[in-house]
Structure formats: structure tokens, C-alpha cells
Amino acid sequence: MEGASAQADKPLRRLLAYMRMAPGGYVLGGVLTLLYAVFFQLIPLAIRDIVAAFEDAPDAVGRAILWLVAASVFLALARLFSRIVMFNIGRQIEFRIRNDYFAHLQSLPQSFYLAHRTGDLMSRAVNDINSIRMFLGMGLLNLLQTPVLFAGALIVLLPVDAMLTLCALGPFPLFVLITRHYSRYMFQANLAGQEQLGKVSTVVQENASGALVVKAYDLSNLERDRFEDQNQELFRRMMKVGVMQTTMFASVSLVPALSAAVVLWLGGQRVQTGLLGTEDLWLFWGLIGMLTFPTMMLGFVVSITQRGLAALERLGAVLDIVPSIRDREDVAAVSEIKGRVEFRNLTFTYPGSYVPALKGIDLTVEAGSTVGIVGPVGSGKTTLVSLVPRLLEVDDGSILIDGVDLNRMPVHLLRSSIAMVPQDSFLFSISVAENIRYGVPDAHLVEVRRAAARAQVEREIEEFEDGFDTVVGERGVTLSGGQRQRVALARAMILRPSILILDDSLSSVDHGTEEAILGDLEGRRRGRTCFIVAHRISAVRHADQIVVLENGRITERGTHRELVELGGFYARLHHRQELLSELELKEPA
Ligand SMILES: Nc1ncnc2c1ncn2[C@@H]1O[C@H](COP(=O)(O)OP(=O)(O)OP(=O)(O)O)[C@@H](O)[C@H]1O
Ligand SMILES: [Mg+2]
Fold first, then answer.
1. What pLDDT digit, counting tens, does each position of 24-50 carry?
2. Residue 378 CA: which ligand is closest?
């Protein structure tokens, strides 16, 4: 128990903070619960009156029965409203936690998403938060209510026969022992189950996202086996939870049975010896009987609580991550970015990796100039450009923008002044126009069109049936790879960034389109710094400087002409591509 309660401590504190947001609801819920407890006791009292009336005053039977009916109706009403109030609070807190979870996810850096699986994050957002709500509604309601019911029972029964009351309620502490015993294992079992649910969600999510690959490689069977394995494990872990839950439930239900036996045995004797009236035996019998259900519910609540705590723990594991990329206390008072970028002896290693992806990078890119970055696959190009908008964390002093340490730049300013078209552009399932104006939600359609025109994709968009209103992706048309790249480019261009980063963003467009886009960038560049990562020489040959990255190091740098003369990687790449394009030109002849 110690282990479980120590672990349960922190999540509980988080939960309490949420509960404090709805104090009114809890007061109302508390009052209704008290009322419920009062009517609860009135029922066995009414039964006693009926029995007594039958013995002594048959005239009063009718009135006593009316009492019973009225108490039952009020009990039902109090039960109804206390549940509505408590379940409502549960829903409200669920709503807030889910919003906070989402907002928190948004604040986490790229490295977090590299280390966590989407399916698991989704499972936390859905299943775990659901478990927390169950705990807050049904769980808390019973946790609050049952002790009040027992206190009420003591108040009613003690004056009638203290000895019998103590004996009848004697078995109930057994309940605490039983649930203590089980909850020790249940927390871990639930945690294991919920973790596995996250894994199952991941397989489903990856197969939905990668459906094309699975089909193309005819791996449906393999994936099905993989899913079955994970699902089998889920089944096993959930069965374990289920078995624990039912055995606990069964053991708990023995407690009231034991108590009823005590009432009948001891109470019966006391009636025979005249120490107790028959109607009082009925009162004991009725009240103990009525306590059976709440006691069993409390057993159920113990398991809901363990599941809720396990869910809180899983959620806390994400919520507790402090976003490493946020404004520091020594944030610089900068309101504009001109675009001079300086890398100073930069070495970068991905979290969890042993080999640095970038080593000893020294590079200065003057404001308004263009730098071309080429190099073999995996040489560190994407890594290098991802550091500029601070998608990954670097050491102080290794990157400066306009002479200010990148880590001291206001994050908001960075993100609004730097536009990056990633290598693998993601578009949302919204219209093309909305995708393009993503960074400037109030941009006018004219601006959207202008950006699309500059990205050389306007004509193609207009040819879609719904033009710029065409919905992209899951709910609409599938854009070609080249169209996607250019829509992503338009999305970056509409921002009018001080620094524009194209990470191999023109790889899927033909040569003519590439030239048109670069020509446009060139013409309008005025004061805009450009990073152009490319595998094709044609995309970087006009850049003010070009660097070659190999194995995380800059191995060549200079202008196109200088690098061709140097005779290294760049020159070889250049010659190869020249030969290829000559061949292509000759072919149609
Ligand atoms: N999240 C990561 N964790 C660990 N290592 C990574 C991570 N992302 C990239 N790497 C490694 O860092 C190195 C540089 O990768 P990067 O993506 O920057 O290469 P690249 O030059 O952009 O390649 P490409 O031309 O294929 O786009 C590679 O060895 C890669 O395996
Ligand atoms: Mg790359």
C-alpha cells in the first residue's frame, strides 16, 4: 500500500487543484448527498413503524405506509439530483483536463513528439481522461456518500440497541482490510492495462496512417498478427484487472451477508428474551440490508479509484514535462528580426542519441542573403535548419540571430518571423485556402491567391472543382506530392517571414516550376534571408553562398563557381546532374 499511496499522492494533488475550480458544485452535491442519507434512514424507520402499527395500532398502518412511499420518492429524487450534480462536475473537470492536456501538448517541443507515439498520446487523451471522469463522478459520489450513510445508520441504531449495533456493524471493517489488500495490486494492474491500451491504439493509428504502405508491401497479414499480439496482451492484462475486480467484489459482498447473519442470530435471541421489539429487529434487518448495495458499490469504487489514479499518473507523466522551449527570464527585448544568422562552433546531438548529428558548425548568413545547403542523405541538413526556428534545443551561444542568442529570443517573435517549409509537408484536413492562411488566419483571399501564385500552384488549385475551398486530405481530395509541397510553400510565403527556410521543398516539382519559384523568391527577396536545402544543384546555384554538409560537418563552402572549381562533393554532384540533364535533352531527338 505504501508504494501505491506514495505514487497516488502527486496525481491526487493535481486532481484537487481541478476540484477546487468547482467548489459550488461540490457544496450542492454535498447537501444533496446529506439529504439522500437522511431519506435513506427514513425508509427502515418507516418499516419499523408499519410493523409496530400492525402490532399495536392497526389504524396507523395506512399512514405509516404513506410515510414509506413518501420517503422512497424523496430518496429517489435526492439520488437523481445528487448524481446529476456530481456527474456534471466530473464532466466539467474532464473537459478542463482535456483542454489543458491538448494545450500542453501544443507547448511541447519537436523532440517530445520524436519520443512519443501518436497512438499512445491519443489513448491518454481519450481513455485515461475518461477513467478520471469515472473516478470524479461515480467514484467520488460514493466515496462521499457511503461514510455518511454509515454514520446515519449508527445514529439511528445505537439508541435502539447499542450492543446489537456494534455486533451488526462489526464485520464492516473487514471491508477496509479486503479493499486494502486488493487495491495494492490493482493500481499496478490498471496502469499496465492502460499502457497496453496505448500500444494497441498506436498500432491502429499507424496502420490507418500508413495504410498505403501496408497494402503496397502486402503486409496486411503481418500487421494483423502484430495487432493480435498486442491485443492478446491487452486481453491478458484486462482479464487480470477483471479477475481482481470480481474477486474483490465477491469478497466484499460477504461482509453485509455476515452482518445480516449477526442481526438475525443475535437480534432473534434478543427478541426472544424480550430485550428487543420485533419492529426493532425489522429496523436492523432493513437498514443493514439497505447498506449492502452501497458497500458493494464502494468495492467497485475502489477499483474505479485505482484506475483513475493510474490514469492520472499517465496523464501527469505528460503534463509534468516542462516545455524546454519557452521564453526565459533573460528574454531579450527584441521586437523585430532582420535575419542575420550566425552559427558558432555548433555541435548538436539528438536527445537519446550518442553520435552528434552536427559537429563544429561555423557559418554566418547575412541578413537578406541566401545560403544553399547540399550534402548526402543523413548528413544533417534538416537538423541544421530546424535549429533556426528553435524546433530543437541548442546550447547557449551556439546560434545568434541579429547578434542575439537564439535562446534569448522571444519564442513568439521567432515563430512569427521564420517560416519553414519542412521536407515532409503536412497539410490539415481543411480547405486549401485555410491551409495557406494557416499562419495568418485573417488573410484575405487575394493574399491567399497571391501566395499560391508565387508558389506556382494557383492555376492547379483553380482547376479543382471547389477551387480554393477544396478540402484537402482525409475528408477531401488528395493532392499530389508536388502540389502539397507548393501549397506548403504558399503557406510559408503568406507569412512574409524575415527568414525563409526551404528544406528540400522543391524536390517534387519539375525544373521549370522550380526556376519560376526561385526566380520569384530572388526578385522579392529584398531583405529576406533564405535557407535552401536541396539535392539539386539547380536550386542552390544562384545562392550567395553554398555549404556542403557531410557527416554533420561543413566540408566545402563558397559560391557555385568556387565550389565547382574546388572539385569536391559539390563539383561531382554538379557534373553528374549536368550529364543527366544533357541525356534528358538528347532523349527526345
Ligand atoms: N530524432 C532523431 N533522433 C536521433 N537521430 C536523428 C533524429 N533525426 C535525425 N537523426 C539523425 O541525424 C542525422 C542527420 O539527419 P538529417 O535529417 O538532418 O539529415 P538530412 O541531411 O536532412 O538528410 P536528407 O537528405 O535525407 O533529408 C542522421 O544520421 C539521422 O539519422
Ligand atoms: Mg532532411
1. 888 888 888 888 888 898 999 999 999
2. 1
